[in-house]
Amino acid sequence: MVNQADIDALREKPLEPRQLLIGGKFRGAEDGATMTVTSPIDGTDLTTIAKAGQRDVDAAVFAARRSFDVGAWSGAAPKERKKVLLRLADLIEKNALELAVLGVRDNGTEFKMAIRAEPGSAAATFRYYAEAIDKVYGEVAPTGAEHLGLMLREPVGVVGAIVPWNFPLMIGAWKLAPALAVGNSVILKPAESASLSLLRLGELALEAGLPEGVLNIVTGRGSETGEALSLHVDVDVLAFTGSGTVGRRLLEYSARSNLKRVFLELGGKSPNIVFADTSDIEAAVAGSINGMFRNSGQVCVAGSRLLVQKQIADEFTEKLIAAARALVVGDPLDLHSDVGAVSNAEQLATNLKYIDIARSEDATLATGGKRILEDSGGYYLEPTVFTGVQTDMRIAQEEIFGPVLCVMEFEDVEDAVQIANSTPYGLAAGVWTSNLGKAHQMVRAIKTGVVHVNCYGGADISLPLGGVKQSGNGHDRSLHAMDKFTDLKTAWFSI
Ligand code: NAD
After folding, report:
1. Which of 194, 280, 305, 322 could form a disulfide with 168 if both were Cys (CB 3.0 to 4.6 A apart)?
2. Rounded to the nearest whole angstrom, what is the distance from the C-alpha of residue 400 to the centroid of ligand 1?
3. pLDDT category, 458, cuts 50, 70, 90?
């Protein structure tokens, strides 16, 4: 159990300037370029990170390729790779408090959530893939006696992993653990505003015994470092989590370079649907609040469109607004805070822009809508609820990625399905009903990668997370995530 004093002991710890991890060594960018890391908690400068340019990215890809070809990792027996990844999971757990506080200082997620979702989940993810790797078999084809047909799974080689700022360790581990477990070498590109905990993870990976060059970390701007990595002709696979805008660019980069495979985990505008027959309205209110406002709504699967059946809309909305107002927004390192800071100044500006758009579209601002705690220097926004939202409004169609909830009403199952499927996204959904048949019907009718029933959010590393439509094409988590990082090879023997 973490207490406030443990957190406070780490919150002011001075941070050294952070460098790139290339070929097993930390070093600055070749041209010495750095960028300042600003904390969303109070707007102060925490430290600097290196800004990797083309030559640094080239060096990282070269180190990854060389380590792959040398084979200390790619050619190691699965049980040897397993040992190292289990040690890494142990080290993440041992350093969980430090990792969580560091991450929160960098991206503003409330500590209560970060400690579970970041080091907690990253350790579980490394452990899961470490345990899986010596239990996944190839296949023998059903041939006649004159032949033997084998299907082998081989690592793809060099993987570029590009991740966002909302849950850097969790999402970073979703890419790194399966990619490394099957024997690849990786270049990781963290987001500009959430690099620190991933750089610390790089140190822990070396301590765990990962051979040099197997994990490289390049920090810097997406448009420079990320672009150089994505265009590189010696990267075999790109595994990306982030916005659709950047996802589209990666597909172009692939076409312009070496046709590398690109797996995209993108955004959402997820419907959370509450039927009048839900057995526990209080639970549905609490689940809807939790599924929307944790991490200031900066959650890809956030239930940002709340669809409530007409008969209970007034009662439900009243309780929802009261619950949104009761959330304590503030210093994310204070254990009393339910909601921390918006991760960066640009995202705060985006949220405020959408609040203005919603007003201009005649949605009703039921609560929130304002930046608060400005004196702290940090980026805080009230949990915001708009009612009377219509399907064709921009706030019902576009991902805001902030604490802004749209409440919409519906008549019946057909109406709910029509509204639910009315955006270009297809990441997640929620359904609250006491009717099992209706729940199954909705699970089949909603076009998303995930449907939560009588809950919102949460799942397990054993289940895939991925989108359909414009929410992407890959899957993180579960054994299926290893497919992205392996090639299927056929061997055909004449006997
Ligand atoms: P973003 O697309 O702006 O950035 C993501 C990463 O891409 C960052 O590391 C960034 O530096 C890099 N990048 C930016 N421009 C690039 C370029 N031209 N070439 C290569 N790399 C580039 O996304 P964000 O703002 O960091 O994250 C928020 C988005 O991520 C939201 O849309 C959210 O829904 C999505 N997300 C999806 C999932 C999922 O599992 N589907 C999970 C979390 C977040």
Report:
1. 194
2. 13
3. confident
Instruction: List the strands of the sheet with 147-155, edge to edge.
Output: 139-140, 147-155, 486-494
In short, whether 465's Cβ falls inside 6 Å of ligand 1 is: yes
- Amino acid at residue number 176: L
Q: State the closest ligand 1 atom to the C-alpha of 221, by its place in the atom list counted from 1.
A: 11
Q: Clarify whether residues 115 and 182 are in a common domain.
A: yes
Q: Are residues 174 and 122 in the same domain?
A: yes
The rounded distance, in Å, linking the Cα atoms of 237 and 416 is 38
Inside any domain, residue 467: no
- Name residues whose C-beta falls within 8 Å of residue 438's C-beta, 6 or more positions apart in sequence: 275, 277, 413, 431
Strand-pairing partners, residue 21, are 26, 217
- Containing domain of residue 426, as a range? 271-460
Ligand 1 geometric centre to CA of 191 (Å): 7
Domain presence at residue 465:
no
Closest C-alpha to 400, from 494, 311, 292, 291: 292
Q: Which residues contact 489 (CB under 8 A, 6 or more apart)?
A: 151, 152, 153, 154
In a domain, 331, yes or no: yes
Nearest CA owner, ligand 1 atom 18? 223
> Is there an atom of ligand 1 within 6 Å of 164 CB?
yes
Ligand 1 atom nearest to 189, measured from its CA: 9
Q: What is the Å distance from ligand 1's center to 96 Cα?
A: 25
Rounded Cα–Cα distance for residues 303 and 364 (Å): 19
> pLDDT class for 1, splitting at 50, 70, 90?
confident
Active site residues: 265, 300
**Residue 23 sits in the same domain as residue 127:** yes
* 466, part of any domain: no
Give the number of other CB atoms < 10 A from CB of residue 36.
Answer: 10
Q: Is 299 in the pocket of ligand 1 (CB under 6 A)?
A: no
Same domain for 131 and 247? yes
Q: Is the CB of 162 under 6 A from ligand 1?
A: yes
Please report the pLDDT score of residue 441 as a whole number.
98
Ligand 1 neighbourhood includes 266 CB (under 6 angstroms): yes
Decide if pLDDT at 459 tops 90. Answer: no
- The three-class DSSP label of residue 23 is coil
Number of domains within the chain: 2
- Token pair belonging to 286: 């609490």
What would the DSSP string read from start to end of 68-111?
HHH-TTTTS-HHHHHHHHHHHHHHHHHTHHHHHHHHHHHH---H
Answer whether 395 contacts ligand 1 (Cβ < 6 A).
no
Q: How far is the CA of 243 from the centre of ligand 1 (A)?
A: 4
**Where residue 405 sits, what CATH number does that domain have?**
3.40.309.10
pLDDT number for residue 40: 98
